[in-house]
Amino acid sequence: MNRRLWLWVIGLVLLVGGWLGYQWLRPASDEARALVPPGALLILTSDHLQDTVSAQAFRSAISLRQLPVFNEARQRLDRFLYTTADTSTVLSFIKGKNVQYSLHNLSKNTLDFIFYIPFAERDRAFLNRLTNPDPRQYRVLNHTFSGEKIFDLVARGNEPVGSFILTNNYLIGSVSGILVENVARHMHQTLLLNRERLGASFVRNDDELAGVSVRPSVIQSLFSNAGSLVRLFLPEELNLHFRPSASPSHLIGYSIDKIGGRRDVAVLFAGQSPQRITHANLIPQTTATLYHIGISDAGRFGKSLSQLLSSASSDFLRDRFSQIESATGPLYNALGSDILLCRLESATGSARQVLILTARDGKELANAYQQVAYRAGASAPAPLKTFLGHKTLLLNVPELPASLFSSLFAGFPQSWITQHGSSLIIANSEEVMQEYLQQVQRKAVWSADARQAELLNETLRPANFTAFVRLNRAQTTVPLTWPAAWQNLLDQPDPLTGTPALANLENMAYQASYGNENIQSTVVLGRTTRRASQAVLNKVLLQKRTEFNAPLIAAPVVAGSLSDGTAQFYAQNNAGQFVLVTPEGDKIVQDTTDGPIRSNALAVDFLDNGQLQYLFMTDRALYIADPGRKQVRLQSIRLPKGIDPSYLARPRGSQQRAIVALVAHADGHIYALDRQRRAFVRMLTAPRKGPLLLPFQVMATPAGMDVLAVQADGTLNYWNENGKQKPLFPSRIERQNEEQVEIRFAGPALLPPGKPFIQTITDEGELLSINTNGLIAKRTQLYRPVQNGEFRLFPDEEQTNWLLLRNTDTEVAVLDQQGQRRFEVRALQSGRNNVRYHRLGAGVELISVKSGGYTTLYDLNGRVVGDRPIPSDFPVAVQFDERTNELYVLSGAKQAVQLFSIRLR
Length: 905
Description:
The longest helix is centred in the N-terminal third of the chain and has 24 residues, at 2-25. The chain has 16 helices and 50 strands. The strands form nine sheets. It has a 20-stranded antiparallel beta sheet, sandwiched between helices. Strands 21-50-49-48 form a four-stranded antiparallel beta sheet, with no helix packed on it. The protein is α+β, with helices and mostly antiparallel strands. Among the domains are: 19-214, no CATH class; 219-471 and 506-526, no CATH class; 682-796, Lipocalin (Beta Barrel). It is globular, with a radius of gyration of 32 Å. InterPro entries: Quino_amine_DH_bsu.
């Protein structure tokens, strides 16, 4: 009897133990995290995502619903809830509920969300309405899958709205019925599968807006841009708690995660105290991507980095470091607190990089860097060049920064170096170095921008490593490197604003500090650019008007930046007077010129005095304007007979430091302006006589300068800097029809940066792609609907990209690179037209069409920019300020110079 009793007791204990084990292995049914099927890419948790945002708050602060992934989750839920109820009913149901969203793969290129909404007994009325909608608009079907009843909400026209499951505590739904079936299958699977769930449940604090768990595979795919080692600085999983930051324009996600497989990176920063970015005065405004490494003990960092590079997985880095290792010690020891890599905005997608090495002793660091370069095989020192008071030196050895600091710093085919204060500046081309020094000189840097300085000093935290990206910059937008599924998800327009949520996000930063066991991570999301209210959005506003006593005879010349109020204007009246207009509006007659200005203005350090002078041409002379505070000193150089005064080109990449400008001659030659001899000298000779079609293209190459120019008779010239043409050039382009040998061009030729083919077009619309050996690779005859229409290649003013134009005397059609029409402008005034293509940075591209006494601005889709045309007797000068999203237009009309602004979205 006792034995049977003991058997019953043992059985009961086993039964209770088994039930308790079941409950321990399987999370409680009311815990939403237990309901998420395996394979979630990320999980969001928030009770604020469905909050409404006022128009004023939308402009001045960032909210969860403005962030791309959060916005997509909110849209999916809104689309489901608002189908069967009005706004007040939905808001009363959802308010205060901690909703969870999980993101899953539907196919190779499609992602979608599942949402999990907790409900209580008081919500039964809403749920009944959901399961029994108005039959005149919706109907609910249901089916059973894996033992769970699944409801399918269908619109009147049989369009599926979404599917959902009702448990005891949760409404689980998705736009995708497949994902809801996955939830049902998961709810009845083996218990241990629940261990695969992503992340841990978030502890909700009052100041938290949301929680996010992200899988390592997702992090890696979003940081997998070629050559970047950013993913190595990330933890293997991020569990972020989002809170408001000190600045209302940014949100911050905090995370402390196990160090996992990131111990090599942690060793690199062992003994290094986390640092803020302290040299904001060296970060140029056009920086699109910024990497920062903070150092507190340079010697210790150098030893750790040496060990890392000695065992690098890249054969090139390992071999190169063994070659230079003996010379690296002095360089590492001379480092200061900041290592900054700035990737500048690029209109062409090419790498435009500047490495900033701060130092305790700048001269010691510069000497150490040169010694490393010579150890790596750099040739004898090149002649020093001077630009804006800085001596610049070319070290022609590839990937030197990567050899010293890992392949995160790749993209330097050569190093142009200079010393600025106590810092060493390293650029990957001379043109990038010159642009950088110009920005630093005119203080177009982050420390001079209040919002950017606030971001650095208050929002970003001290960290060992910081990666910062400014989205929506020309050719630098991160999503171009993201997987197609993510691009498709985030490119959906918001139903309220009509623009993708990605347009709401400008700044994205990841920061990390490394301890012995944990990585402290910070993700910063937001924007520093001011938004425009509807009251001023797209309005043409007059900022300044300066009147003259006599009519103007040429377009005003701008010296400086229109946006910060420091620009001077140079104007000419019909009395031949050259007038300086100061920022304060003073009009000071300086001198007289021998006629109206015909050319563009070129900013160069002509006097070699560390300041910029402005070159421009009249019909008979080239003038050098040297600006001062209240005066402009004018000097002139006589033009040789036959010089075309309409175009000045910058000698990009020239190895001759005395050459500062290039001009075209009527016989097809290229002349150079020598600042030492103060004269024009023939530099490049055309074998066939005939004027060049302007603009000709000047390209910087590792060997120096190349020049590409076409003549109207079909001759394509391609010169080296030494005056010789490339092999097989000049090339004569002939028609395929042998009966008509003559071919005529109406516009220039262009070799787009980074592209293999020279592009040009005949006046009758035959688009030609020409190999760099002079042979035609492709011919495309474009449709010409107007008999007297003429085609021309249409490069932007900096020759970084091109479109096509088809124009008559009174009409202009802008075409894409395949010849497809983008938009047309008709009813132009005959003989009084001028069309220009402006690429202004930050992804802003405009076409200006001057007709008669007015100029109209268009985007590339043909939408008019500004609510009215701008009065202008001459082509306008256009600049864009990405800090305020304002477009500035300087115009000369009748007897006045006027400055207008247009606030963009």
